[in-house]
Amino acid sequence: MHKTLIAAPVLTLMLAAGTAAAEDFGDRRTVVFSADRLFGLYLTHRQIDGDDNLAYEDGDDVTEVGFLMQEPGLTPFTVPRLSVDYFLTDHLSIGGSIGFAHSDTEPDDADDATYNSFFFGPRIGGAWMFADWAGIWPRWGVSYYSIDDQGTDSTQFALNAEALFVLAPARGFAFTIGPVADIGLFGEYDPPVRGEADLHLYDVGLAVGMMGYFGF
Question: Is residue 41 part of a domain?
Fold first, then answer.
């Protein structure tokens, strides 16, 4: 399985952002660099609806948990990612995530095993601070991913919602924690032999992240 690890370079970036000219979180012209879903507990469901002649399962349910790394499991929505957001006005943010992965394995006695994936997830949000150290940052967006895993292609377009609490132990640096949900609207699952089918992925969970922010 393919794993994602967010390590020292990310933490260095966030600490650098935190030492810049920090504004109150949510102020206009604030830039936020986030490491999202660093830790999470998720309940995920995959539904594959193919032709009646194809022996697809009715559905799969999995509980996923990870810290700093996470196997994609049923859905890549639960994998840690880097994000950037910008506050156009006080409280209103736009941003998102983009990512790509590739691997090419050459075993001794088998065909080459290749893996390619792409993820894109724009979003908007609204942030309100109750105090200097605590607030809330709900975010809504859409996302698209495509995966080619040794000839098995899958794609998914989904709605995403997060209701994150912001906990800022120091100005310019904060943690996020809260419930998240990803609702697959439409997608395709196309293995080499069994034929194309409709794919729907859903997950709900509790996610933890961290961020650095600064203003211009």
Answer: yes
CB 47 within 8 A of CB 154: no
Could you give the residue ranges of the DSSP H alpha helices within the chain?
Answer: 8-19
* pLDDT tens digit sequence for 133-150: 999 999 999 999 998 887
- Per residue in 166-198, pLDDT (tens digit) is 999 998 999 999 999 999 999 998 887 767 888
Question: CATH code at 80?
Answer: 2.40.160.20
Burial grade of 137 (CB within 10 A; 0-12, 13-18, 19 or more) = buried
Listed in order, strand segments (DSSP E) in 91-133 are: 92-105, 113-126, 128-131
In-domain check, residue 59: yes
For residues 202 and 182, the answer to whether their CB atoms sit within 8 Å is yes
How far is the C-alpha of 36 from the C-alpha of 164, rounded, in Å?
Answer: 11
- Phi, psi for residue 88 in degrees, rounded to 5: -65, -40
User: Residues for the chain: how many in total?
Assistant: 216
Task: Give how many domains the chain has, as a whole number.
Answer: 1
Q: Is residue 1 part of a domain?
A: no
Separation CA 133–CA 6 (nearest Å): 25
